[in-house]
Write a structure and sequence with these properties.
Elements lengths: L12 E9 L2 E8 L26 E9 L11 E10 L13 E3 L2 E4 L2 E4 L5 E4 L2 E2 L2 E6 L6 H4 L9 H8 L4 E11 L2 E10 L5 E10 L4 E10 L8 E9 L4 E8 L12 E8 L16 E11 L2 E16 L3 H6 L11 E10 L22 E10 L9 E2 L6
Antiparallel strand pairs: 1-2, 1-3, 3-4, 5-6, 6-7, 7-8, 8-9, 10-15, 11-12, 12-13, 13-14, 14-21, 15-20, 16-17, 16-18, 17-22, 18-19, 19-20, 19-21
Catalytic activity: Hydrolysis of terminal non-reducing beta-D-galactose residues in beta-D-galactosides
InterPro entries: B-gal_small/dom_5 (IPR004199), Bact_Beta-galactosidase (IPR050347), Beta-gal/glucu_dom_sf (IPR036156), Gal_mutarotase_sf_dom (IPR011013), GH-type_carb-bd (IPR014718), Ig-like_fold (IPR013783), LacZ_4 (IPR032312)
EC number: 3.2.1.23
Length: about 400
């Protein structure tokens, strides 16, 4: 433990620990920390971990809160926190036991129903899928993406629009049934451009869940980074509650994640939106192991390999990008769910430097998978809540 204060010691703080297994707090308690002077460090011993399921992802969380009321905050106000991963997440077993069956203009595979001509998912169990999932690389440019005209760095927002990344075209090249798999090959590209993304979607099922494997191969000389890389799908507006195991509770991006901690969180879909003065990309929750969207009539659970970021909104990215004011964002009858393998960083180019090199999302071969399971029960109702640290 290190006291990073310049003057104060740690006597004004109380410390607690909690032990999480797959995001669930199994035990918690006070942590004895000496009143270290400014700049001092000391080794602090955590207790023995509680019994937990073998293979669970396990994490220690330590929090520092005010021990008593002050002029600026009440006792219990969180000043700092940290997490230490003991055991990472175990890979999800996958068994492709169901067979794909074609009947007229439809293909059935496990709980999924697909359009036979395009290979697009149209239903997941009783849940209609109004769009997708299909590859998506566009985001509503942020103020930092737009940049400032006096800056020497590349301004990615104008470059993305000049390339046509806001109007990508999807061409289905092949739909193949091969026993237990449905494979769809497509090319995703701006209109009239040599640039493209060869995309393969491979669907399999164990009879209960539907697994989507996505492989992306860039074509052409991509000289600018991608805004995002993932899939987009449309779901009924009734799925208005989100629960997830990942980083939270607020939004986070690759280079703006310092406040996001691992845990289980829940919120209404409408509360996931960050209402910036000028509408722009917002609301991503990163490092998500699983997500559950639900309503009164059921829902869907999504698991990712590797972990993914998600956003859920009642308007399209195109409407978000076109809006000049928050009042122009009118909810529709669809929840637009982005499931991102990666996103370009945020940077600070509206007033400072652009995205650092390590947070650029350059076009490169990529592969990721998502597993979709239809649900019969919604997440528990209530306001934004979390279990990542015992306190939100």
């Amino acid at each position: 433990m290190t006291n990073g204060h310049d003057v104060a010691d740690l006597a004004h703080l109380a410390f607690t620990w909690s032990f999480l297994a797959d995001g669930e707090p199994l035990a918690e308690g006070p942590l004895e920390v000496p009143a270290l002077a400014a700049g001092e460090s000391a080794r602090v011993m955590l207790p023995a971990p509680p019994a937990h399921r073998a293979g669970a992802e396990t994490v220690w969380t330590v929090r520092a809160v005010l021990a008593r009321d002050t002029a600026w905050a009440a006792a219990g106000h969180e000043v700092a926190w940290g997490q230490l991963t003991v055991q990472g997440p175990a890979p999800r077993p996958s068994a492709a036991t169901a067979r794909a069956v074609r009947a007229a203009d439809r293909i059935a595979l496990g709980p999924g129903v697909f359009d036979a001509a395009t290979g697009v998912l149209t239903a997941l169990g009783p849940l209609p899928v109004t769009a997708g999932p299909r590859l998506d690389v566009w985001r509503a440019p942020t103020d930092n993406d737009e940049g400032a005209p006096w800056q020497p760095d590349e301004r990615h927002g104008p470059l993305w629009r000049a390339l046509g990344l806001h109007r990508m075209r999807h061409r289905t090249d092949e739909v193949v049934l091969d026993g237990g798999a449905l494979t769809v090959r497509s090319r995703v590209a701006p209109a009239a451009s040599d640039l493209g993304l060869r995309t393969t979607y491979r669907w399999t099922s164990d009879g209960t869940a539907l697994r989507l494997g996505v492989e992306v191969e860039p074509e052409g000389d991509w000289r600018v980074p991608l805004p995002r890389l993932g899939v987009l799908l449309g779901l009924p507006a009734a799925l208005d509650r989100a629960e997830w195991y990942g980083a939270g509770p607020g939004e986070a991006y690759p280079d703006t994640r310092a406040a996001a901690r691992l845990g289980r969180w829940a919120a209404p879909v409408d509360a996931l939106h960050t209402p910036y003065l000028r509408p722009q990309e917002n609301g991503a929750r990163i490092d998500t192991r699983w997500l559950r969207l639900g309503g009164e009539t059921g829902g869907v659970r999504v698991e990712g390999e590797p972990a993914f970021a998600f956003t859920a909104r009642r308007w399209t990215t195109e409407r978000l990008a076109a809006a000049a004011h928050r009042g122009e964002l009118v909810p529709g009858d669809t929840i637009w769910l982005h499931l991102d393998h990666a996103q370009h960083g945020i940077g600070s180019q509206s007033c400072g430097p652009g995205v650092l090199p390590e947070y650029r999302l350059d076009a490169a071969p990529a592969a990721f998978s998502l597993t979709f399971t239809p649900l019969g029960r919604p997440p528990a109702p209530g306001p934004l809540r979390g279990r990542g640290s015992g306190h939100v």
